[in-house]
Amino acid sequence: MIYGLAVIVVFLLLLQDFLLVVLLQMNFEKYDETQKPDFPKVSVLIPCRNEAQNLPRCLDSIEKLDYPKDRIQFVFGNDRSTDETSAILSSWVASHSNSILVEVVEGDSKRRNGKANALIQMAKSADGDFYLFTDADCVVPSNWVKSMVLAQKNADAGIVTGITHIGSGSLFGKMQAFDWWLSLGMVKVMNDLGISVTSMGNNMLITKKAYNSVGGFEGIPFSLTEDFEMGKAIEKKGYKAVHHVSADNLVETLPQQNLKGLLDQRKRWMHGAMDLPIYWRAVLAMQVFFFPGIIYLCFLHPFEGVTVWLIKVAIQSLFIYLFSLKTGQKLKIATLFLFEIYYLFTSWSTIVYYFWPSKTDWKGRKYG
User: Fold this and answer.
1) Single pTM value for the model
2) Are residues 161 and 232 in the same domain?
3) Which of 115, 161, 251, 353: CA 20 to 30 A from 149?
4) How many other CB atoms are found less than 10 A from the CB of residue 149?
């Protein structure tokens, strides 16, 4: 019986990965970016908590945004930082008339997480027709605002999720980057099939109308993944949700620096994943249970098991490589094969850490 279950899981995972490659190539939804936007008023919201080290590169990137200065507003939130974040933001805001700094007041952690609390207060100062969200540890491309606005216009969407990748020269960082390419590629394929999964708060556009229709972040249930809850709430109101993937809206973020930080991040994401529909949780479970299945087959039939495992790695690597090409990125195939070892370890470590009786640490705050 165990042998039969192992064969079924391995076969289904191979089929799933093959279908992902096919659908990525044949059903990839693109949003025309060649036309000129009518330049609606956009508010860019960037919450910051102890981001003094990361803010200079973020601020430098938004300085280079190709969008009319009188049609864009920057709303920063200093979320009770204890480093030089407030001083850096105050100096920048003082020299940019289209920006505002909100000193965030601590909220009720039982009703909303720290980031949602910050965004609630920041949104009250936003005067744009569109709200664009990113994080202080991110770098945005010069055409980011135009690209996201055009995607919303062409899709008539209430919420647009962009594409984010991890920029890193370290091997640990590159492994995290491959993980993001794989996960976001799967999300994009599902979205293009009409099955919306989640949103990413570090690269997200919401129309003011859609935001207000759900009562903003104040109107959604408590969650450690407030972006996921916001996307779900907006869709329930009948608005369209799309995932826009191109070189012009590719935002770069930073990797976790150590295993503890990575597992804390994954534990927080797991809280959102557990609220996903059953079919999506089945897809994720198949990714995880492939490993004990294939290891069991390798133990019984070494040659056949290793061959099948290599086929899986090849298909998975092809999917990640092809998806990254959609944004003009070219990954090294040789390094991609190392990702399987990382993926085996982190997938099972995440499950153990999620169920481990400890609180979730996020930006110095404890939840759970």
Assistant:
1) 0.91
2) yes
3) 115
4) 24
Q: Which phi-psi region, left, alpha or beta, contains residue 215 (left: φ > 0; alpha: ψ -120 to 50)?
A: left
How confident is the model over 253-306, as pLDDT tens digits?
999 989 888 888 887 877 776 777 777 777 777 788 888 888 989 999 999 999
Range of the domain at 87: 42-258
CA angle 339, 364, 84 (to 5 degrees): 100
Q: How many structural domains comprise the chain?
A: 2
One domain for residues 14 and 122: no
For residue 363, being part of any structural domain is answered with no
| 367: helix, strand or coil | strand
E strands, 142-285, where?
159-161, 163-166, 204-207, 241-243, 250-253
User: With contact defined as beta carbons under 8 Å apart, do 78 and 7 qualify?
Assistant: no
Residue 328 has pLDDT above 70, yes or no: yes
CB-CB neighbours of 354 under 10 Å = 18
CA distances (Å), origin 274, targets 13, 14, 268, 294, 318:
20, 24, 10, 25, 28
- What does the alpha-carbon distance between residue 42 and residue 149 come to, in Å, rounded to a whole number? 9
Our measurement of the distance from residue 286's CA atom to the centroid of its chain's CA atoms, rounded to an integer in Å, reads: 21
Same domain, 133 and 167: yes
pLDDT of residue 118: 93
Q: Do 86 and 146 belong to one domain?
A: yes
Summarize the chain as % helix, strand, coil (round to 5).
55, 15, 35
Last residue of a domain, one of 210, 233, 258: 258
- Considering 258, 286, 318, which residue would you say is the last residue of a domain? 258
Write out pLDDT tens, residues 155-206.
999 999 999 999 987 899 999 999 999 999 999 999 999 888 788 889 999 9
Which tokens in the block code for residue 21? 């490659």
Q: Average model confidence (pLDDT) for the chain?
A: 90
Are 76 and 89 within 8 A, CB to CB? yes
Reduce the DSSP state of residue 330 to 3 states and report it. coil
Q: Which pLDDT belongs to residue 60?
A: 97
If asked whether residues 247 and 273 sit together in one domain, one would say no
Please, are residues 206 and 230 in contact by the beta-carbon 8 Å criterion? yes
- The DSSP H or E segment spanning 107 is none
d(CA 288, CA 284): 7
